[in-house]
Design a protein that fits this description.
about 270 residues; globular; TIM Barrel; alpha/beta; 10 helices
Length: about 270
């Protein structure tokens, strides 16, 4: 594998007031990680969309968060136990908090099928769920269909972040996702130092860890900060006070309205 790109500090610098990213799509209204949820984020005018990627048995990345398909598709099987053809035939049965009408039940979709027709519609934040094959496939797909500036590949796994940085061009961001404790609070791990050492571009931090001095230190180190998952005014206020770069949200109506975005009409 190639060595990581040698980069100095930089920031693509979207402003917090406009950089709303849909968590698993616009998942407050449409089944998460589906083409419908991505299209909902586009229609709402969001800056980007965050999706979770897991590999099928034959190494194809699909938009699925969980290890097993029980919650989203009512099937007691692991994603990596099924091949791509079988996964693509599975219907998503999950109901979002405020469901909107759909012409047909959505299916589990591969990253390439969801992304390629919408590459220019918004930024993509692809979270890799612990399989290096997903990193390699995202790199291939983004070489063939370059994403908009500001798009990012992300993972909780530090080694996968390093792999992504080596595989992706410098203009694509790579972000380390981090959460330390269930109650939140100040960070103890040296995440800024580790992220810089790995030649990454950003830290995606659970919103209860957001702290203005820490965010300022990250910015001074040339890193962006993404806050997840902000769904209420209190967490948004804290993120804005800290001057985070991106807010990742499920998209409830009060939050969308606050940012001048358009929620889907009620059925």
């Amino acid at each position: 594998m190639d060595e990581p790109h040698d980069k100095g500090p930089r920031r693509a610098a979207p402003t917090a007031s406009g950089a709303l990213v849909g968590h698993r799509g616009l998942s407050h209204y449409y089944p998460e990680n589906t083409e419908a949820s991505v299209d909902g984020a586009i229609a709402a005018g969001l800056y980007g969309v965050e999706v979770d990627l897991r590999a099928s048995r034959d190494g194809v990345p699909f938009l699925v968060h969980d290890v097993r398909l029980q919650r989203v598709a009512g099937l007691n099987a692991r994603v990596d136990e099924l091949d791509a053809t079988s996964l693509a035939q599975r219907t998503v049965t999950l109901t979002p908090p405020e469901p909107r009408s759909l012409a047909a039940p959505p299916r589990i979709v591969s990253f390439e099928a969801a992304y390629a027709p919408r590459a220019d519609a918004l930024r993509w934040y692809a979270e890799i769920k612990f399989d290096p094959r997903c990193v390699d496939e995202v790199a291939r797909i983004w070489r063939e269909h370059p994403p908009l500036p500001g798009s990012a590949c992300m993972s909780f796994d530090r080694a996968l972040c390093r792999r992504a940085r080596a595989a992706l061009p410098p203009e694509v961001l790579v972000a380390r996702i981090h959460q330390e404790r269930v109650e939140g609070g100040p960070l103890l791990d040296p995440i800024i130092e580790q992220t810089r050492a790995d030649h990454l571009d950003a830290v995606a931090l659970w919103h209860r860890h957001i702290d203005p001095p820490w965010v300022r230190e990250a910015h001074e180190a040339g890193l962006q900060v993404f806050a997840w998952t902000v769904n209420d005014h209190e967490s948004v206020d804290a993120a804005l006070r800290a001057n985070v770069d991106v807010l990742i949200t499920d998209g409830p109506s009060p939050l969308l309205a606050r940012f001048g975005k358009t929620p889907p009409p009620a059925p």
